[in-house]
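Entry for the shared binder. Reason: the reviewer on the internal report wants the predicted structure included alongside the sequence.
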Amino acid sequence: MTTKKRLAGFIAAATASVLLIAGCSASGEETDKGSQGAGGTPEKGGTVHMLQNADFSYLDPSRGFDGGVNAFYRLIYRGLTMQAAGDAEDPNAIVPDLAESLGEVSEDGLTWTYTLKDDIFFDDGSPITSAEMKFGISRAWDPQVGIGSPYLRQVIDAPDDYQGPYVSGDMPTIETPDDKTIVFHLKEPFPEFDNVLAQPNAVPFPEGSGAGDEFIKDIIASGPYTLAEYTPGSSILLERNEYWDESTDDVRKAYPDEWQFDIGIDAATIDERMIAGQGDDKSAISGTISASTLPRIQTPQLQERAITADAFCTTYMSMNMTKAPFDDVNVRNAINWAIDRSSLVNASGGTQLADPAFTIIPPVVSSHKDFNLWESEGDKGDPEKAKELLAEAGLADGFEFTLDIRSQPLMQGQAEAIQQALEPLGITVNLNVIDTSIYYETIGTPAQQNDAAITGWCPDWASSASTIIPPLFDGQNIFEKGNSNLAQINDPAINDRIDEIGAMTDTDEASAAWGDLDEQIMELSPIAPLVFSKAIFLPGENIAGYHPSTSLTDLTIVGLKDPSEG
């Protein structure tokens, strides 16, 4: 058995530039438009357009793992399991995809077996067998390629020195006794392994493919669409994969003939186009409406199109505990006392788009515990309390630090709110603006991250806080790349408690325990929770089957009311 490590992951809460997606939460609440989403049931055909400020991070699902690209992957890749459709009774459920059923688990919980469906193919017509499934999954261990979702690496009992198929060859702990059967051996019992296999990097590829940068500008699709054209930073065109058999796919409806992604458009321009709704934009979707645009969508016509999605994600500022002065708990607590969260709510679009956050677990997740360790009048912060803590730390005159942020207006506004709140304490916040397309890879590499970073986190699947607390705060999982423990907190008591809760079989007991642990962790202030991010979307009037979410926006069920207009 290899050394036990708890799970980790890194998902960003995407904002105005891309669809807000990133796994699930324990709540299955619908948007205000109800079960039909936008426009009822789509018709087959036409082209759906998507307007984006930034390019997707990677076409390769072993590399990408951020808000925006995961929804895109559902259009072109398939796995053994997947999250249910966005219009399902429980959109957070995990259902079979390429597998005939969910996994069969051994009595000791260490072995999971899956059987592949018949008539499943790649976009070149070659069959998908257990060998291709095993190969694709084993790419997650490659040190260059496997920088995306880390759950496969954390759960499957691979040899300690295994470095993926290109370097190490065959993985002995994934067995393929025949073309249709694949067997996984785990490090320890993990009841949510079906959820792990629904992660974006658990997809098949032909054996030997995808080494190095092969999938940077090209793909080998297994889903209903394949890549027709790609101009990095400008556009992506997806067309139908003729070898995808809809009878093998119970989730993806694949209504449009094509998906056209228009990239690199200014966020304000995207809002203008969605409001005007002219030409192809009638058949377009985009990310969330920016805060400055909200007053303009109050007309009855636009309110009819607008869809509100609840907050499943937490925006926060990590503080790097390996660097002075954030190695001092008094300094970190001083930051939390000083921050004006009412100002952050305003910078995030006001109360329509954000609520102040004092916990890492959002209220919609069942593990949420309602507490506030930094309570102040009007959520404006308490500078005097912050000054006392800074004096105790020997920093009465303040200090200077560098804050990593994305090159995106919303995050820049949030950073400026932090600057303004800390300036009276003599704290200078220098902003390091990083391009959105490389932001999450950069701050997820400890050698490259600075003193602090603004980012976001959404639960990866509907299992309370089991995909929130461990990825962000378990010191046993601090990685050279793809690191989600941005504070680099490594507290033995927290690590042990994470293990203890992870071993609980009573889900109610575990849920309450995660909430208590949230409070225990916040007493150490490794992060500063900022806001819980809500969202308002404005699809084109020809869009149908659209269920936007701050959890997972399912593109595979989106289509057009009238394909002849798209």
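Summary line for the report: The two ends are 55 Å apart (CA to CA).
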